[in-house]
Amino acid sequence: MKKSYAIIIFLISFITSAQNVKTSNTLEVVGFAKVAITPDIGILNINITNIDSLFSQSINGLNQKSTAISDQLSEIGFQRSSIRTNNFEVHKNTVYRDNKNVDSGYIASQQIQLEFKNDKDNISRILKQFSGSRSQVDLNFNFKLSDTLKRSVQKEIIKLATKDAFDKAKLISEASEIEKGQVVKINYGNNFNGGMRLYNNDQGLNEIVIRGKSDLSNGFTPSDVVYTDNILVTWDLK
Fold first, then answer.
1. How buried is residue 168: exposed, middle or buried, by Cβ count under 10 Å (0-12/13-18/19+)?
2. Is the pLDDT of residue 231 over 80?
3. Residue 101, CB half-sphere, CA atoms under 13 Å: how many?
4. Helices 55-75 and 120-131 sit at what angle, rounded to 10 degrees?
5. Do 225 and 144 touch, CB atoms closer than 8 A?
6. Is-contact 46 133, C-beta < 8 A?
7. pLDDT grade, residue 111 (50/70/90)?
8. Do the Cβ atoms of 221 and 42 come closer than 8 Å?
9. Which of 64, 82, 96, 164 has the fewest CB neighbours in a 10 Å radius?
């Protein structure tokens, strides 16, 4: 008898609990936005190397080349304080000769980097300077958004993604003839596939590479950087 009473009490409790659970009818909509923006910052990278039989001379030669490059950039109006050097390296110059590897002095290398305002005039001045220079260099241009511009773009793209979600929800509600209620949840960022991100895979840099002496003196226009963002909004359905 005690066992029968226990089963009856359990069933009553289960039924009561089930009756107290309210079915939640909701509408979830993903708002999406895509923005194309022209980078406002250009980054010039110049890779230089110097080979010498002596360790010290390879470094001295590299320093002379670096100074010559800095002088040329200064000649066309860029401040020396904005010119940076990085990726300095010295290693043995190993060549394959007579069926074996032979040490042939040292290779010293480093990169000269300059950030500048992205406009055709600056790019044109850089290309003209080095296309007419005796220095044989590899030029590498990257382009990116400044922090100020990136924050501005992020604000705009969030507004667009949110508006897209609300517009879609209104359309779905009207098409289904089901009235939507209040917003019950908005999900953005780490807990959802959100957060402003690049549409392509260039890691935030728009890159143009020019090898050797260049006769491009009229400048060029880098492609726009495309960002996307999305937001998840949930409504109650009446």
1. middle
2. yes
3. 3
4. 130
5. yes
6. no
7. very high
8. no
9. 96
